[in-house]
Amino acid sequence: MQEIWANIIRYFDNNMDAYFAMLRQHIGISLRVLIISTIIGLSTGILCVIFKKQQKWIITLFQTLRIIPSLAILVLSIRFLGIGMGPAIAALTFLAIPPILMNTVAGLEKVSLFVLETAKGMGMTPLQVWLKVRLPLAFPMILAGIKTATVEIVASATIAALIGAGGLGQIIFQGLSTRQTELLLIGGISVAIMSLGAVLPLNLLDRFLQRYRNI
Amino acid sequence: MSKNTPVAIEYQNVHKRFGGANCNAVDGVDLSINEGEFITILGSSGSGKTTLLKMTNRLLDPDSGNIVLFGENIRDVSPVQVRRRIGYVIQQVGLMPHMTVAQNIAIVPKLLRWDKKRIDSRVNELTALVGLEPSEFLIRYPAQLSGGQQQRIGLARALAVDPKIMLLDEPFGAIDAINRLNLQDELKRIHGGLKKTFLFVTHDINEALKLGTRVIVMNEGKVCQFDTPRNIVKNPADGFVESLIHSCREQEKFWEGLI
């Protein structure tokens, strides 16, 4: 145990810069995936609610894509996108869209019809009903989807290292191949802390947005 | 009503049928309502009373016939414009759960871009008008109000921009008997003070006869009778109206039997 601790300290003494570079890469990939999948998931969710007839197969499509292991998507996308950051982002995006999409649809459909009817009856335009009533009321649920996606993205971004996208996965895979426990610990704990760190501000935002419920 | 009172709402041979239905939801309604009247529309579910109401603020459009508000055919006005001129209250109230009481009442004034000072004073005035203490209630969220208080705010919100016409769709339907009587009395008081035209849908004959200056009795999409409460009770126009009054009398006998 003492030896591992000493090794961890030694690692940081010698590799501080490399560690932070990997951390930055990891955050960079995660953030990009989160933004792209939020944009796609949210807009597809809104379209699903507007075009109800298409809703079923769109959701089925993304659900199916989600079943494919992200490692498989990662490897398959090498064929089309090559190696590096691009395919990693694409594969992780497929993984992150479904929770955001599903929660967007559920949240938008949960808004009471009477609230929507009075909004319309008071003279809001269709756009105003969406922006002032429907989206704000669905937002806590959409945010819950984004939180689920965030945790998945941060955790799965580790395997992006396999196709040369960098990130903290590099430390973990190096540790695996050289049997260096301290590297596994450094990589694993860093990813766990990052997940927590990403969800915390989202939780605070959630608490703030839902203040009308928790009284 | 005197001859000089302007006509507020005119239904001209209005028909409406919903897709898939084999009879008209509203079938040839033809009547006119004067400014300042408190009209109650009485009918059982499926009688077309709510459909008639919703056509008045263009939440629905008639298949044929015209609806004219103060001389203006609403077909020629955009739905959004029509609705902003008319107060609308429904049984489920439909307060925006993510907005405070003050924000709820301010919705339409904000849509019409009133300045903040004017909105604030109007919100205070209306909250007091519906019998709630502004300093206590304005900062609350709908979830912190009782059913009766919510409907009072619903009423205040509908009155916000001083509409000439108010549409009320069974507003007290989900409220307990005691609060209901209070709210009926207050609604009557508010109507008396404002000189607005109220159109109030209900399936409760007591409520209809108590509140209405005139009552529209509807059945199967048609108007059976449109008259003052007194005349309706005295001279029911057809079997349906008669049976309504009969059912009411039976209830009265039941009460007398208990005493």
Question: Can you walk me through this structure?
Answer:
The complex is a heterodimer of chains A (215) and B (259). By secondary structure, chain A is mostly helical. Chain A has a single domain (21-209), classed as MetI-like (MetI-like fold), CATH 1.10.3720.10. Chain A is built from eight helices and no strands. In chain A, helix 1 packs antiparallel against helix 2 (52-67) and helix 4 (85-110) crosses helix 6 (126-156). The N and C termini of chain A lie far apart (48 Å). Chain B has two domains: 1-85 and 165-259, P-loop containing nucleotide triphosphate hydrolases (Rossmann fold); 92-162, no CATH class. Chain B has eleven helices and ten strands. In chain B, the strands form two sheets. In chain B, strands 6-7-8-3-9-10 form a six-stranded mixed sheet, sandwiched between helices. Chain B has a four-stranded antiparallel sheet with strand order 2-1-4-5, covered by helices on one side. Chain B is globular, with a radius of gyration of 19 Å. The model of chain B has no long low-confidence stretch (mean pLDDT 93). Chains A and B meet through helix 5 and helix 6 of A and helix 2, helix 4 and helix 7 of B.
